[in-house]
Amino acid sequence: MDQRLLPEAVKRYLRAGYALVGRHSAVEVCRWTRSALKGGYMCYKRWYGVRSHRCIQMTPVLNFCNFACTFCWRPHLEGRFEIPSDWTWDNPSEIIEGSVYAQRRLLAGFKGNSQTPKELFLEAMFPRHVAISLDGEPALYPRLSELISEVKARGMTAFLVTNGSVPYRLEELLRKGVEPTNLYVSVYAPNPDVFAKTANPLTPKAWDLVMESLDLLPEFSSRTILRFTMVKGLNMTDPEGYAKLVERSQPKFVELKGYTWVGESQKRLPITAMPTLAEIEDFARRISEVTGYNLKLSDAKSRVVMLVRDEDTWLWNLKLVEEQRLLEASLDSEWKAKLRDFRLKNHGKPPIPVLI
Question: What is the mean pLDDT of residues 157-179?
Fold first, then answer.
């Protein structure tokens, strides 16, 4: 694991429920995965076909981030942007294999949970979605295109969330023809002044770099999402400014997500910085009036609002969801057949060593 992490930092990540993978990657089971495994609510990514019990939330750059966002729930550790000159990066295939294994270990306890249907548990052992986010800035990982290729080669969708500060990494994805299933670019303010206060970038000319990334979005054929995190009293201002960013980048979707008062952010912001869903929807409508994007969906539990470019884009999204469902069904039929064969040969015993 990352030798820059002091023992206390490692303990903090482990206490938070992280499973460390290799030198610089990690997995954490999110609340919606746990909820879905007990037959409960799934997260808003269901809009794009993600079923939460089959989703891995991971990062290939634990503890490497070039922003120190005011609203971030993570601690702002010293040196998070300082990558050692002699640093050795792990192989993408090892990261994905390690992440799947880590996810299985983290979820193993659900096998005996009376609220978890056996079918859901077995499906969770064969994840179909990878959210490349969790911690740090994923675009700092130099082999990101290979990582995404590894995810998709296994029949899984890849949702990449970036702060847009490394546009040459996005250019590389385009040049190599490796696009994530969903490309999220998070923009934390409507203008440079508010951006500086909100994102606290540690890299020079960060706003200009983010704008370069926005200019690349129209070149992607996959789902492109502009993400705005709304913080009252900080960056939940100037909807016309946000609208200009939408018009500039022409994403297929826009998401406005309400800030949540958790973790280390509680030391930096008051609880009143959390907007209500109604406030987010009202702000979204003001962006919609300028851009023509339609307010399509809201998720009350996550306080997320989606705007979509037009109805044709929404129908295209539904078609992608259906195609992914068919691929999942095909892949699932393979492991289910192997499971049946194993049980027949072993008098009904479950292949626990094979699964986890």
Answer: 97
